[in-house]
Design goal:
Layout (H helix, E strand, L loop, with lengths): L8 E4 L5 H12 L3 E6 L2 H13 L5 E5 L7 H13 L4 E4 L14 H29 L2 E6 L12 H21 L4 E8 L5 H14 L3 H10 L9 H11 L11 E4 L8
Parallel strand pairs: 1-2, 1-4, 2-3, 4-5, 5-6, 6-7
Helix pairs in contact: 1-8, 3-4, 4-5, 6-7
Length: about 260
């Protein structure tokens, strides 16, 4: 299938590693020109070098910390200078610290709301006029399977990412007649550094060995294994594609069947 992404311009947040990098690679493999964003210049430069060596879509990078007050303005300028415009926005953010609802202090809520919700919404709003004018746009927001089945000891993530579900559905209905889609991609246990960190935190909290924690988690996944970044990224590339023009307002789970909800 031709995804129609050749020459499309994509901004991919938090793409120095993990899921964000996977999506950036998948888009570039389909011919899109991607702008990677993150806080590690060395890692971003290496990623761009590897993507550009493939000879399909081009990759550039820009340093950016979504927690900074000037993040949105910096990204708008970077899109203009490095891409010359925007067709695809991939909203991806790091996860908050693990913890229970009692651990959700006012300071923590405010800090992570700024980086996980506020910046996502304000950046999307800043780039929407360009998409409306050209009659094409793809907005893909990466969240977590915790928005459909809350994950134990991830109260902050369950709460804040769920706010984006309502926002995304509302946005999708408002921009559909401009040729713009807005979808959410929900990872289950995709093998990334983040999963390793969470497993380590779970082992420390419960007093179990890391091996036992991982074995127990695999038992909850019908597929019987962790997902691959490439599998997750392929779903993301499709949602950003031209053939997916009639898919909007959805939350797509990539979790090996782990979520028990219908």
């Amino acid at each position: 299938m031709d995804l129609g992404l050749t020459g499309k311009r994509a901004l991919v947040l938090a793409s120095s590693r993990g899921l964000g990098l996977g999506i950036a690679k998948a888009l570039a493999a389909e011919g899109a020109n991607v702008l990677l964003v993150g806080r590690s210049g060395d890692r971003l430069a290496e990623n761009c070098k590897a993507i550009n060596a493939e000879g399909k879509g081009k990759a550039e990078w820009v340093w950016g910390d979504i927690a900074d007050d000037n993040f949105v303005a910096a990204m708008v300028n970077a899109v203009k200078e490095k891409l010359g415009g925007i067709d695809i926005l991939v909203n991806n953010t790091g996860g908050p610290t693990p913890g229970t609802t009692e651990d959700m202090t006012a300071d923590k809520l405010d800090t992570f709301f700024q980086s996980m919700v506020l910046r996502v919404i304000t950046l999307t709003n800043a780039l929407l006029p360009q998409m409306k004018e050209q009659g094409f746009g793809r907005i893909l927001t990466v969240a977590s399977s915790g928005v459909v089945e809350p994950i134990a000891n991830l109260a902050l993530s369950n709460t804040l990412r769920s706010a984006l579900v309502g926002w995304n559905k509302t946005l999708a209905t408002e921009v559909a007649n401009f040729g713009i889609t807005a979808n959410m991609l929900l990872p289950g246990r995709i093998h990334t550094d983040r999963i390793d960190e969470l497993d380590g935190a779970n082992a420390k909290r419960t007093g179990k060995s890391l091996e036992d924690v991982r074995a127990a988690s695999l038992k909850t996944i019908p597929a019987g294994r962790l997902g691959k970044v490439e599998e997750f990224a392929a779903a993301g590339a499709f949602l950003c594609s031209v053939p997916a023009s009639y898919v909007t307002g959805t939350t797509l789970r990539v979790d090996g069947g782990a979520s028990r909800s219908i």
